[in-house]
Design brief:
The protein is mainly α and 490 residues long. The protein has helices spanning 2-10, 33-40, 44-54, 56-77, 82-110, 112-130, 136-150, 154-163, 166-175, 177-197, 200-207, 209-217, 225-230, 234-248, 268-271, 277-307, 326-329, 339-350, 356-366, 368-385, 392-420, 426-454, 456-475; strands at 30-31, 256-257. Strands 1-2 form a two-stranded parallel ribbon. The protein is globular, with a radius of gyration of 23 Å.
């Protein structure tokens, strides 16, 4: 594997190679990047790609899930009210929303690899600064900047998508969920040990380590050959494909690599081209709704555990009228997680991979649209089931299934979005979708952490209704991408 990685490292310099466009001699065989990727097939390079690019999910999960496990501590330290705690998560996703479009635009113009590296450097730097935040205002600002950096991690998925043969995309991309699960479990496990001992600031510092380590191994992954050929850099694309063929022990197609007609890249108006207008609008609705449900489940889980809102649970302790301490006068008392709360969070988080095998089968046999429609409909149902008066064990079971379903939703829409747009606007398509996704994520905290305290049933019905809208949008998407080759341009 070390030799294979060394070969991959040599390909990084290839992205700077540029040659003038030359038409192949008449009658000479030609091949496209798509044909080369299919001919070379799956092998050692793709395993290395899967491990390195998939690990970006570990870093992203740790940074995003971090807020759920530190919220009780910052609420206590800075005596925050509900809306102030919710604002932290909202600002993280606000940073994600703004920079997602910008970085997607830049990735289509200047390359996926460069933007991915930049985003990791950015996120790690501001995450470390967050651990030094002297006040609530600084904490909110720095976490928003972290969100901006994390938004660029989606380029890792695009690089994987553009290198994978068609028949493997529906299997390998959903398996990447394992890395997100690992990151989520890691941050919860660390929080259960670090928070009660050395505090949340050290938890943030430790959570930055995976991002720093990944920066060191990015050099082993080359720039996307599809991106290079779309920019006219055919020599770099060809050299990258030859390197992959050598690592996989496969032969290249006969002939010369064909260069498509060069077109403008990263243009927003392409997303609303008549061919893609309806698809784009429906994708945006789905992304918004899925994020709304996903982060709603995560934050609602933490809120249910922190406030003990489960039906039938013990009533909160009655405050002593004679207690005139500063904490008793505060509108927000300290409610820190105990071992049982962390255990429940771990169990519900494991649910994210519970439906992965069925999700993979659905994606590959039912297609992306129908599979997403079914899982969104089931998500709506389980949100309503949370209204049932049950024990803590029953609530944990419902949360487990909800995490499994919302994870399956994200798997499917990530794959569909990366497949439906051509190379010239794929990163921008993912960027704008990710931006709309964070709108849903920005609203979710105020429903899970504010409205849920006032109206438990109302909050759950709102989540369920949004899932139903997404299910309808998924079923009526005009393009199915199952088994379809990736396009280069419109």
């Amino acid at each position: 594997m070390a030799t294979a990685l060394k070969e991959a490292e040599n390909a990084i310099g290839l992205e700077e190679i540029h040659t003038e466009r030359q038409e192949p001699p008449k009658g000479q065989k030609t091949f496209t990047v798509q044909e080369a990727v299919e001919t070379i097939g799956f092998g050692r390079f793709h395993i290395a790609l899967f491990l390195i690019m998939g690990s970006t999910g570990v870093a992203e999960a740790m940074e995003i899930m971090l807020i759920a496990v530190v919220s009780p501590l910052i609420r206590c330290e800075w005596q925050l009210q509900d809306w102030q705690v919710a604002l932290v998560t909202t600002m993280v996703f606000f940073g994600y929303m703004v920079f997602s479009i910008v970085l997607g635009f830049l990735a289509d113009r200047y390359g996926r690899w460069k933007i991915l590296l930049l985003s990791f450097l950015w996120a790690a730097y501001f995450s470390l600064l967050t651990s030094l935040a002297p006040s609530y205002i600084w904490f909110v600002f720095l976490r928003a900047m972290v969100g901006g950096g994390v938004s660029g991690h989606a380029q890792g998925l695009i690089i994987k998508t553009e290198f994978l043969p068609t028949k493997y995309r529906g299997y390998m991309l959903p398996l990447s969920q394992v890395f997100w699960l690992a990151g989520s479990l890691l941050i919860i496990g660390l929080a259960s040990v670090v928070n009660p001992t050395i505090g949340w600031r050290w938890l943030i510092r430790i959570a930055s380590i995976p991002s720093i380590l990944l920066i060191l191994v990015f050099k082993f992954i080359p720039e996307s050959a599809r991106y290079n050929v779309s920019t006219g850099n055919v020599a770099a694309a060809l050299a990258t494909l030859q390197m992959i063929a050598k690592m996989n022990g496969a032969a290249m197609p006969e002939g010369v690599l064909k260069e498509p007609a060069k077109g403008r890249r990263g243009r927003f108006k392409d997303l609303i081209h008549p061919k893609y207008l309806r698809t784009t609008l429906q994708i945006w609705i789905i992304w918004l709704g899925i994020a709304f449900a996903y982060y709603g489940v995560i934050l609602a889980s933490a809120e249910l555990l922190e406030r003990d809102l489960v039906c039938g649970s013990a009533a909160p302790p009655v405050q002593d009228p004679g207690d005139d301490s500063e904490e008793s006068r505060s509108p927000c008392h300290c409610r820190l997680f105990g071992p049982a709360a962390y255990q429940t969070m771990i169990i519900s988080t494991v649910g994210e991979i519970a439906l992965n095998p069925l999700n993979i089968l659905g994606i590959n046999f039912l297609g992306r649209r129908l599979s997403l429609c079914i899982t969104m409909g089931c998500t709506a149902l389980f949100f309503l089931l949370l209204n049932i008066c049950t024990s803590s064990t029953g609530m944990t079971g419902f949360l487990f299934m909800l995490r499994a379903l919302v994870s399956a939703n994200f798997n499917t829409i990530y794959i569909y979005t990366a497949e439906v747009y051509p190379t010239t606007m794929r990163a921008l398509g993912m960027g704008t979708s990710g931006s709309l996704c964070r709108v849903g994520a920005m609203v979710a905290p105020f429903i899970s952490q504010v409205l849920m305290s006032a109206s438990f049933v109302g909050a759950l019905c709102l989540f369920s209704s949004m899932c139903i809208v997404c299910a309808i949008s998924a079923f009526t998407l005009p393009i199915e991408t199952k088994g379809v080759a990736l396009q280069v341009c419109i």
